[in-house]
Every structure is written in structure tokens, then in C-alpha cells.
Design goal:
4-stranded antiparallel beta sheet; 45% strand; 5-stranded mixed beta sheet
Length: 228
């Protein structure tokens, strides 16, 4: 496993009206954060909050290119970001113990915090399609260029981990500074990760490691998994 220290590029927040960041996603222009009873969007260039939606937002957040998906207790809500209206809900696989949330290639990926698992689920029904095991608590989850990353948070230690999506093997780890937790994780589609900071009320931008062709970057998400 390749291990290195995370390079924190920038800190955002704390934000007005946000006591805790529970989940993070990015819609290509704005970063969205889940703050318990509301979602807030901020500009990653200026750090300014632009708008908010009054909706239950207890854990991970995801964006599919059109809609937001938000974990609210034991369910996942599909939200129209323009109106704030909840369009549909599906059961969350952990029944209330769910953490991170990501969208990739037509499905949702849901972290299970203390169960140390990541489930791929059908966004229409909530049915579990497959499961990947981790050896650490799972907080945020994100996919970028065929790479599966998840955040961890255990006591005063957190890191970002790249897993083999077929086996769950840890391929790479970025250690966050001591005392800095990761409560949500999202890629900007390029060279940065956005990391929720839990009760600090902050979001941190972390540099994503550069890839060469020898690293296997750009691989497709596998259609099946040997880890069930």
C-alpha cells in the first residue's frame, strides 16, 4: 500500500447556520454540504454560501448530474436542487447506520460507518447490488476516473483510502492532519477532493494524487465484485 500525507489546499467555513458537516457533494459549480436539517451550496472559488434547502440531511450527499441524493435517517431522498422538492425516497441499506454517498455510472454507493462496508445500490429501489468490505470505519465515499475512495474517521485519526473495487484491498492512503476528521468525501472531477469536517463545520480541499498510465488510472468501474 502506498501511504502519504494529505496535502490540504484550502479550508472553507465555518458557515453561517452550519454546526456540523454530515456529507459533501459537488455539482460541477457548487459544493453542497449536509447540515442536519438543511443542505447548503457554496462557491468553491470564493467560499461564500449561495443558497440553502430546508430538507433532512443527516449523512452522505450525492449528485447524479441533475438531482441531489441525500441520506436522511433510514432513507435516501432524491431532491430537485432547483426547487428543493423531494421527488422520491428509497430505503437506505444500513437502516440508519449509513454514512457516505456517491453516484457513479448509474448507481449509488453507500458507506456503512461502523459496519466497514460500501454498498452499491439501485437508485430506483434501494436494492443492494454488491458489497465491498473495508478494514476501517467508512465515512465519505467517492469515485473518480474508475478509482474508489473513501474517508475514515476513528478517534483523532482520519485518512482517505483508495480501494480495489473488486477485492476491497487498500491500494493507497492519504493521512489527514492529527485531529482533522473526515465526515464526507467528494471529488471535483479533477485534482481535488472535498472533505467534510464533521463538528468543525468546515470543508477541506485536499489534493488528489497525480496518476500515470502505469498506475492504472482511468479504469472502468467493474461490473462485478469478488467481495460480497
Amino acid at each position: 500500500m502506498k501511504r502519504s500525507t494529505a496535502e490540504v489546499l484550502r479550508e472553507y467555513g465555518p458557515f453561517p447556520g452550519v454546526d456540523r458537516v454530515n456529507g459533501v457533494t459537488y455539482d460541477g459549480q457548487h459544493v453542497w454540504i449536509a447540515a442536519g436539517d438543511s443542505l447548503h451550496a457554496f462557491d468553491p472559488s470564493s467560499g461564500k454560501t449561495l443558497r440553502s434547502i430546508d430538507v433532512a440531511a443527516h449523512a452522505g450527499t450525492a449528485f447524479d448530474g441533475e438531482h441531489l441524493f441525500q441520506i436522511a435517517e433510514d432513507r435516501i431522498q432524491k431532491i430537485d436542487p432547483k426547487t428543493g422538492r423531494v421527488l422520491a425516497t428509497i430505503p437506505a441499506p444500513g437502516g440508519g447506520s449509513d454514512s457516505g454517498l456517491a453516484w457513479a455510472e448509474g448507481t449509488l454507493w453507500v458507506g456503512q460507518h461502523r459496519d466497514r462496508k460500501i454498498h452499491q445500490i439501485d437508485p430506483q429501489t434501494g436494492a443492494v447490488l454488491r458489497t465491498i468490505d473495508s478494514n476501517r470505519f467508512v465515512t465519505g465515499v467517492t469515485w473518480i476516473d474508475g478509482e474508489l475512495w473513501h474517508g475514515t474517521w476513528d478517534g483523532d485519526e482520519s485518512d482517505l483510502r483508495r480501494l480495489d473495487p473488486r477485492t476491497g484491498e487498500v491500494l493507497e492512503s492519504l493521512d489527514m492532519p492529527p485531529g482533522v476528521g473526515v465526515s464526507g468525501l467528494e471529488s471535483d472531477g479533477g485534482e481535488k477532493f472535498f472533505c467534510g469536517g464533521g463538528s468543525s463545520g468546515k470543508v477541506r480541499a485536499v489534493r488528489r494524487p497525480r496518476r500515470s498510465s502505469a498506475d492504472g488510472g482511468g479504469a472502468k468501474i467493474p461490473d462485478d465484485s469478488t467481495s460480497k
